[in-house]
Amino acid sequence: MLKEYRTVSEIAGPLMVVENVKGVKFDELVQVRMDSGEVRQGQVLEVSDDYAVVQVFEGTSNLSAEESKARFLGTGLTLGVSPDMMGRVFDGLGKPKDDGPQIIPEKRIDVNGEAINPMARDFPDEFIQTGISTIDHLNTLVRGQKLPIFSASGLPHKEIAAQIARQATVPSQEGNFAIVFAAIGIPFEEAEFFVEEFRKTGALDRSVLFMNLANDPAIERIATPKMALTAAEYLAFEKGMHVLVIMTDMTNYCEALREISAARREVPGRRGYPGYLYTNLATLYERAGRLMDKEGSVTQIPILTMPDGDKTHPIPDLTGYITEGQIILSRDLYKRNINPPVDILPSLSRLKDKGTGEGKTRRDHAATMNQIYAAYSDGKAAKELSIVLGESALSDIDKKFARFADLFEKEYVNQGFDTNRTIEETLDIGWKLLATLPKQELSRIKEEFIEAYLPTGEDVNPSWQ
Question: Where in the numbering of this chain does the ATPase F1/V1/A1 complex alpha/beta subunit nucleotide-binding domain appear (predicted)?
Answer without folding.
Answer: 131-349
